[in-house]
TrEMBL record:
Signal peptide: none annotated. This is Short-chain fatty acyl-CoA regulator family protein. Coiled coil: none annotated. The keyword Transcription applies. Residues 12-66 form the HTH cro/C1-type domain. SMART domains: HTH_XRE. Keywords: DNA-binding, Transcription, Transcription regulation. It comes from Tropicibacter oceani. The lineage of its organism: Bacteria, Pseudomonadati, Pseudomonadota, Alphaproteobacteria, Rhodobacterales. It comes from the Bacteria. PROSITE patterns: HTH_CROC1 (PS50943). Belongs to the short-chain fatty acyl-CoA assimilation regulator (ScfR) family.
């Protein structure tokens, strides 16, 4: 197979802008002519090997980032947005989307913002009673969506917060583990920690300077919530500075993002970057061994693995997703080319849905997406009890996976046959943008296919795709 050419014009322009260099000076430092640099920045030419080496040697740039920008994510997000029936007569070709994502990423994000506003307006009109009773409703993304996109386009890695958490995890005298460290640091701030059976997972009384945790919560959950409170109190300045850069459109989004950053700090403190990366590599990413070593839950470990994208010290690029029993995605992140549906549920052929049928077990799946990329996917249920009889059980399933080329580093890949094409199950992202014509689980026709209806014949689907 011929090597894939690397077009990274937007990334080159971004690097040059951050360095404060003119095109002429940048071209000189890279050892290329000004016209050649101009063509690369406009994606008329691929980035040459000479430029890649110069970026690493002259500027110390992590060249792996050139091929991991937002381009593929933007293409995936735009394809899904364009699957909206409103675009049925005017959907652009995939090649046009790739050009837009590569050459005009800001325009692509503006389009996604506009479509999101349209979709929310449409939903309000569908619920007319509610819409009429709401005064001053504004066309802006919901706070949850805005925060979700913030983490999505940060690659789910927030460097200042991650490094602060890693520094916090360096235990001081008398601190036996991260839990003791959290209690000690809170005590230094005059805050007492207690447990109560009827308490919520975490409740902080600022007036009494008291933090109350639920005694019914698992130990790893209690530790996590302790660290969340540490982040909110002792890392408040860092969190606010990060939020200032994000420029959220509403106070609600900022508040949600702040809690999200505090949660990020908690996970990174429980599983500090360097130590966790080394342990992940040593155990070949055995989730159970990692959970035992770091006092974390399976879900916490899986989520943390998906954040190991520190420049210069990256781990295996994983995707991570959590779904409920209805198939709704409640958490999602991907450092791989696989991008999840932003609107709706996940592909029903994916093994994450079968995890509910086999509680307590890991399910492995070899899968292939319509673009021909092959993955190994690991799924397991992570149902959460209420801690006592009669309490409601929250049922979720998680999936963690990566491209099969990283399979040698996963204990879960042992004895799987990557050479047999029939071993890979066909999965997609969303029926609206999935091009497979023979899927027996298809719910709606794909946007880019014509339908043929034969009233004299009925197969699995009531139509044929052309």
């Amino acid at each position: 197979m011929a090597p894939q050419k690397l077009y990274a014009g937007a990334k080159l322009r971004d690097i040059r802008t951050r360095l404060g260099l003119t095109q002429k000076d940048f071209a000189s430092k890279l050892g290329v002519s000004l016209p050649y640099l101009n063509q690369m920045e406009n994606n008329n030419r691929p980035v040459s090997t000479t430029v890649v080496l110069a970026l690493a040697q002259e500027f110390g740039f992590d060249v792996t980032e050139l091929g991991q920008g937002d381009s593929e994510r933007l293409v995936s997000d735009m394809r899904e947005a364009l699957a909206d029936p409103v675009f049925a007569e005017a959907a652009p070709q995939l090649a046009d989307l790739r050009l837009t994502a590569s050459n005009a990423p800001a325009l692509a994000r503006a389009f996604l913002t506009l479509h999101r506003a349209y979709r929310q307006t449409h939903e309000r009109l569908a619920s007319l009673d509610e819409a009429l009773g709401r005064e001053g409703a504004q066309l802006q993304p919901s706070p949850w969506e805005e925060v979700r996109d913030f983490f999505h386009y940060c690659d789910n890695y927030i460097d200042p917060v991650d490094r602060a958490a890693e520094n916090f995890a360096q235990l001081k005298g008398g601190e036996s583990d991260i839990r003791a460290a959290a209690i000690n640091r809170l005590s230094q701030s005059g805050i007492a920690v207690r447990k109560a059976r009827e308490a919520p997972l975490r409740s902080f009384d600022a007036e009494r300077q008291e933090l109350t945790l639920s005694s019914l919560a698992p130990l790893e959950t209690q530790t996590f919530q302790l660290l969340v409170q540490v982040a909110l109190l002792r890392q408040n300045q860092l969190l606010d500075a990060t939020l200032d850069l994000a420029r959220f459109q509403s106070d609600e989004a900022r508040a949600i993002a702040k809690l999200g950053l505090a949660n990020y700090f908690a996970g990174a403190a429980m599983m500090p970057y360097k130590a966790f990366l080394e342990a992940a590599q040593d155990t070949r990413h055995d989730l159970e061994l990692l959970a035992a070593r770091f006092g974390a839950s399976i879900e916490q470990v899986a989520h943390r693995l998906s954040t190991l994208q520190r420049p210069g010290a990256k781990g295996v690029p994983f995707f991570f997703v959590r779904v409920d029993q209805a198939g709704t995605i409640t958490k999602r992140h991907s450092a791989t080319r696989l991008q999840f549906a932003r609107f709706g549920g996940a592909c029903p052929l994916w093994n994450v849905h079968r995890a509910f049928e086999t509680p307590g077990r890991f399910l492995r799946q070899l899968a292939e997406t319509p673009d021909g990329v092959r993955y190994i996917s690991l799924a397991r249920d992570v149902s959460k009890t209420g801690g006592h009889f009669g309490a409601p059980v929250r049922r979720y399933a998680i999936a963690l996976g990566c491209e099969v080329r990283h399979g040698a580093g996963l204990v879960y890949a042992d004895d799987l046959d990557f050479t047999r094409a029939s071993a890979f199950e066909p999965i997609g992202i969303s029926c609206r943008i999935c091009e497979r014509t023979g899927c027996h689980q298809r719910s709606v026709p794909p946007l880019e296919k014509r339908l043929s209806i034969n009233p004299s014949r009925r197969d699995t689907l009531p139509y044929k795709l052309e």
